[in-house]
Amino acid sequence: MRIIAIFKRIMTELRRDKRTLAIVFVAPLLILTLLFAILQNSSSVTARLGVYQVDQTIVNQLKKNDNLHLVSLKERKSAKESLMQYNLSAVITQKENQLTVTYQNADTSLTGIVKADLTKTVSGEQMSKLKSALAKVTKRTKPGRAISEINSGMTINENYIYRKSNSSLFISIAPVMVGFFVFFFVFLISGISLLHERTTGTLNRLLISPVKRYEIVSAYTLAYGTLAVLQTVIIVSYVFFVLGVQNQGSFVLVLIINIILALVALSLGLLVSTFAASEFQMIQFIPLLVVPQIFFSGIFNISGMNQIWQGVAKIMPLYYGDDALTNVIKKGASISGVWLDLVVLIGFAIILLVLNIVGLKRYRRV
Amino acid sequence: MEKVIELKNVDKHFGTNHVLNKISLTINSGQLVGLIGPSGAGKSTLIAAMLGMLRLDGGQVRLLNSDMPNRSALQNIGYMAQNDALYGNLTGLENLSFFGKLMGLSRSVLTDKIHLVSQTVDLQDHLDLRVNQYSGGMKRRLSLAIALLSDAPLLILDEPTVGIDPELRIKIWQELDKLHQQGKTVLITTHVMSEIETVDRLLMLRDGHIIADNTPTFLEKQYQVTNIESVFIKAGERYENNSHI
Ligand SMILES: Nc1ncnc2c1ncn2[C@@H]1O[C@H](COP(=O)(O)OP(=O)(O)OP(=O)(O)O)[C@@H](O)[C@H]1O
Ligand SMILES: [Mg+2]
User: Fold this and answer.
1) Greatest C-alpha distance within chain B
2) Are residues A155 and A96 in the same domain?
3) What is the tens place of the pLDDT at every residue in A250-260?
């Protein structure tokens, strides 16, 4: 009953705080879109592209791309063999209006280069066809024929040797980002909200009532848990359905991992807020507690680090969250593949929540 | 007479500042008690000690027959803090019903009580306004309304009449007198000496000690003055002189 009262109160306050809501729900989408734009094309490297029986016009168009090195293949071989033999990133073959591309896809940025250039070339080809068709229309006024020429554009058929997904640098760090945003915002907002309650004296006032300490912590967990669920659904849906990252695993499992991660962030935020005297001091904990977690969370490969640093990674909640998210999104792991990560995360959350309940004893000892 | 508040040798330092110096005090049921003292004397600290919200350096507190700190004893206390601990983003009504629910009032009782207390503090027309948009006095009145909400047998009010106009102040005191007549115990702090002439018992806190504890008329006689304001000054002077000897 009291939990519900506090829960409802926090939700009402949140609902009226329009700017915080905008930040929580819109800012991650903006940043993800920016990252998407930046990381989609990496233009400094060149990709080796094999062509076999492809129209000379298309080959000439492809040659115009500085970041492609074209290799003409003479013998008929399986794509896999050609890729190996000539150290190629992709092989293209043509059968009438159908191009078949086989990506080697071990280095996802190379795949991205070929894919971008190819799309550009083919659409350029179609544009010129469209133009000439339009010219014919205006000259001969035979619309039927022109339209059939427009429609006879190229189609591209794609295959992958490694991993059956389209990958880019963005896609490889998307799972990390999804986990990070949920962690970061829930940490900050729940922490600041409890801090605000402390500095305005309402926490003290709350405790001069028969409310139990665990009821306060539970209500906060419930309220910010709800916020985290909403935020997770929005971010994850955006990444999967708008930015086109393919999820190899279950959507629901991704949500569950994020929600558990949010629970850790929430309890950490609440706990840390008791050591901050102002909102500004709360911000000061970000470089200390949040930023290092990004470094250890899978953007960089930590398996080459020395043992001590690997140990450091293992005390960071985001390390487990991202391990789980990466396994599900990129490798299609099911719950049996990530249960250990989830158990560790739940362990973090429980310990932190208990510390919060005990921590409230500073204000009222019972 | 039932003891409602009982302090034994309550002691509290903040660093070198000895705010409460072994204070012993008993307040019986049905008393209307005024607590006065210079700013910074420790009135709010003494109240925090009574409520069990303070880690004492020594001594015991019993409140309504429970040793403090005790969570369930808080059920029977209507408390008004010196600072307005209100939720600015919520309306007056939402604040009232939130604190009412915390005190465990059922929905039906709550509606009636909110109606009643908001009239007592003359806020019935402003309940749908966000507290952010309240004036200082309106916030005080809302805090008082929250303290009155649960119909508790013990009311502890820390400067309830600060920033409240004379007309409304009289109305609030009429309400307090009414509650007193109903047999409730009331402890109130204030800096307005004129309003406290009518209490049953006046406590004066200074330098960590209770330097005066009697009825207002007795104290006026003792110091040969005609009002409490003069008692406050004389008692202070006499205390300072004695402590310098
Ligand atoms: N948390 C604290 N830490 C350190 N000192 C404190 C703390 N709370 C109160 N004090 C000190 O204790 C003394 C008494 O404070 P208190 O608030 O009880 O005074 P008061 O009698 O209520 O004053 P006022 O009439 O101005 O409300 C003051 O000197 C104050 O500086
Ligand atoms: Mg005070």
Assistant:
1) 61
2) yes
3) 889 998 999 99
- A-chain residues near B49 (CB < 8 A): none
Find all residues with CB under 8 Å of A259, minimum gap 6, and list them: A225, A228, A229, A232
Nearest CA in chain A to B90: A13
A103 within domain boundaries: yes
Q: What is the pLDDT of residue A143?
A: 46
C-beta of B41 in contact with ligand 1 (< 6 A): yes
Q: Is A205 in the same domain as A354? A: yes
Split at pLDDT 50, 70, 90, the class of B146 is very high
B55: its two tokens: 């880690």
Low-confidence ranges of chain A (pLDDT < 70): 40-44, 106-107, 126, 136-153, 162-169, 301-304
Residues A198 and A286 in one domain: yes
More confident residue, B66 or A76: B66
How far is the C-alpha of A220 from the C-alpha of A186, rounded, in Å? 11
Asked if residue A55 is part of any domain, the answer here is yes
Indicate whether A229 and A299 sit together in one domain. yes
Residue of B11, B16, B18, B19 best suited for mutating to test ligand 1, as the one with most atoms within 8 Å of CB: B19
Report the separation in Å between the CA atom of B43 and the middle of ligand 2, taken as the mean of its atom positions.
Answer: 5
Whole-number Å distance between alpha carbons of A206 and A190: 17
What was the ipTM of the complex prediction?
0.90
Residue A13, domain member (yes or no):
no
Asked whether residue A214 falls in the same domain as residue A133, the answer is: no
Ligand 1 pocket residue status of B83, Cβ below 6 Å: no
CATH number at residue A51: 3.40.1710
How deeply is A195 buried, as exposed, middle or buried, from its count of CB atoms within 10 A (0-12, 13-18, 19+)? buried
Asked whether residue A17 is assigned to any structural domain, the reply reads no
Q: Which of B18, B21, B39, B43 to mutate to test the pocket of ligand 1 (most atoms within 8 A of CB)?
A: B43
Distance CA B190, CA B173 (A): 12
Q: Which domain holds residue A205?
A: 168-363
Residues with CB under 5 A from ligand 2 (ion): B 43-44, 82
Q: Which long-range contacts (CB under 8 A, 24 or more apart) does A319-324 make?
A: A319/A293, A320/A344, A320/A345, A320/A348, A321/A179, A321/A183, A321/A257, A321/A258, A321/A260, A321/A261, A321/A264, A321/A297, A321/A345, A322/A175, A322/A176, A322/A179, A322/A180, A322/A297, A322/A298, A323/A298, A324/A257
Tens of pLDDT, residue by residue over B173-199, are: 998 999 999 999 999 999 988 888 889
- In a shared domain, residues A192 and A118: no
Q: Is residue B45 in contact with ligand 1, taking CB distance under 6 Å?
A: yes
- Cβ–ligand 1 distance for B14 under 6 Å, the answer yes
Determine contact: A199 vs chain B, CB below 8 A.
Answer: no
* pLDDT > 90? residue B35: yes
Q: How far is the CA of B81 from the centre of ligand 2 (A)?
A: 9
End-to-end CA distance of chain B: 39
